[in-house]
Amino acid sequence: MTHMSPRVAVSNTGPLISALQCDCMHILLQFYDQIHIPADEIPEYRKHGADPEIKKLLETGFLVVRQDFVPEETDAATAIAAEIANHRATRDKNPQHHLTESFAIVLMLRSNSQAEELLIDELAARDVARLRKVPVIGFPGILIRACRQRIIEPEDVLSALEECQRQGTHYSPKLINEIYSNLKRP
Amino acid sequence: MKKNYAPHEPEEEVLSAADAIQDAEQSEARWQAFEKGEKMCRVLVELPQPAFSRLEKLALQRKRTVSHLVEEVITGLVDVFVLPEEKA
Questions:
Q1: Which chain A residue shows the shortest CA-CA distance from B33?
Q2: What is the interface pTM, i.e. ipTM, of the complex?
Q3: Does the structure show a pLDDT above 50 at A1?
Q4: Domain count of chain A?
Q5: Model confidence over A154-173: pLDDT tens digits?
Q6: CA-CA distances (angstroms) from residue B13 to A17, A39, B5, B66?
Q7: Contact: A90, B12; criterion CB under 8 Å
Q8: Is A140's CB within 8 Å of B30's CB?
């Protein structure tokens, strides 16, 4: 890299899985120099069947695992997880199940964090992150940016989101059609 | 055959289209400010296939990304050809 500061983001599991589902990891590789993830996400990628792909991205240094959480940060993540579990938009009321996204938020809150934004799709966690003034972007937003930069076409955004949906990701037909119509608008 | 990946938390409610559009706009503004701060200018490079795939393979072997390699090559070219010409 010839520029001074790397372009860094933190990611929750969902957006990286979506990028793999629709074969759009190349877009993330163009937008960012590094994506930091909390160590708790690693078993989740294994569960999603993405272990080899994630391993390769770790080897290139594009993905960086962060596990250096001090006790205060672990406490903060626990409190954030409880807040997400209590949010009206979540169906999963078990705070333990929201710890990975909470650690991702904690990474963003570090005073020395180099990360510019948090990649996250779930509504409840996004709300909780925003309350803490953490800048967020979901995977559909990444595709929209890529389309506006002419990296991909509106039809590519449509097929990418439909492919994620086909593989079970919770992008509704309404969400997909509205984004496509917006991108097609002159 | 295309590999499939199990979805992440498929029961959870996700963002709306309006959220996604706002995300993209705010993110673009953030990165434009970042680039201004770093004195960087963005260029769009369109590579035909198989050049892109070859570069992608090379980048992976070198533990780099395609963007990094393109950036290094262009910067190198400027150092070799443009800067000496300016000095002359």
A1: A116
A2: 0.93
A3: no
A4: 1
A5: 999 999 999 999 999 999 99
A6: 16, 24, 19, 34
A7: yes
A8: no
